Amino acid sequence: MFAYFTGHRSEIMAELWSHVQLAVIPVIIGLIIALPLGWVAARFKWAYPPLISVAGLIYTIPSLVLFVAMPGILGTQILDVVNVIVALAAYAVALLVRVVADGLASVPADAKQAATAMGYKPLGRFFAVELPLAVPVIAAGVRVATVSNVSLVTVATLIGTSQLGTLFSDGFSAGTDQSSPILLGIVLCIVLALVLDFAIQFATRALTPWLRAVPKT
Question: What is the reported pTM?
Answer without folding.
Answer: 0.87
